């Protein structure tokens, strides 16, 4: 039997990779005659370019988090943002400039969630300043030149979260929820980036008007000209492009309220301002990694994630794995540490069964999720693999799992 193991997010540096390897080793102990294929998944958060290279057989990204493959450049902004968390997004500008200088016609930028960046968001202020934009209380200068430098480049922001830039569920609030800042500091930053967003929006509108009047080609595809994350409708006529500029009737919240605008410390907003399309990172990763074709070639898909509930499932690698498997009638089982999904919910999203990786009473504090992953995988293999059961397994819940 061909088993595809697709591991999603786990807390801790390199934990997902180690869980993935432990699952494979455990499965082969339980079903040594099976073939196991590893395809770790990413939602656009830290390490996403490195994982893309791993599953695609490409060279690893350079130390600055930039991976150029042909005419496409992949940027892992977490590398830049986490190198100096309090320094804002200025280091991301160097990544973007390097990608442009490489001649890439398509730049795909991975943007993580508030929990991935131990700092308050700056909504791309550092990046835009490093690119040559100066912003004060009334105006933003230099934005038109930045937009002009990106003409002909297809910008894609692969976002790990669909939060907007502002509001109760925005980037600043998310940073406070993650414990990176106090509520008071988050509210102050919220006001700052809200005011700045209005100024940048007006400058963006003016730059689009100037470009249309001069007959110049607009910047790369604007999110507002097409679908939002997952193909949802945009906010109206495109803010950029040769087809015409938006008028003053546009509002800054057309960008600040976009799903994913708050990703990467608000870099989602900044990249949308530059004409990027904001797409779910897990979906982008799955497409590049050929997850659907891998699921088609498998007899069983095994996916794993630290948390499994309605909120964490949406936009996750687990969702992509379940969708890829169910599209071909391939069974998909999920392993997790914490779950709030019942059997009906599991079946509705295409999962055939789920198994806990949580420590038992006797294991509390003595084992890690990596240790437990191999043991659980070995047990699950004996339930699902004909190589172990001789093809006569009648009870696929015998290992303590929950079938949908």
Explain what the structure shows:
The chain has 404 residues and is α/β, with parallel strands linked by helices. It is 42% helix and 16% strand. It is built from 17 helices and 13 strands. The strands form 3 sheets. Strands 2-1-10-11-12-13 form a 6-stranded mixed beta sheet, sandwiched between helices. Helix 1 packs parallel to helix 16, helix 3 packs antiparallel against helix 4 and helix 12 packs across helix 14.
Helix content: 40-55%
Number of β-strand runs: 13
Structural class: alpha/beta
Major beta sheet, specifics?
6 strands, mixed
Note the gap between the termini.
22 Å
Question: pLDDT average, as an integer?
Answer: 85
Proportion in β-strands: 15-25%
Please sum up the structure shown.
With 404 residues, the chain is of the alpha/beta class.
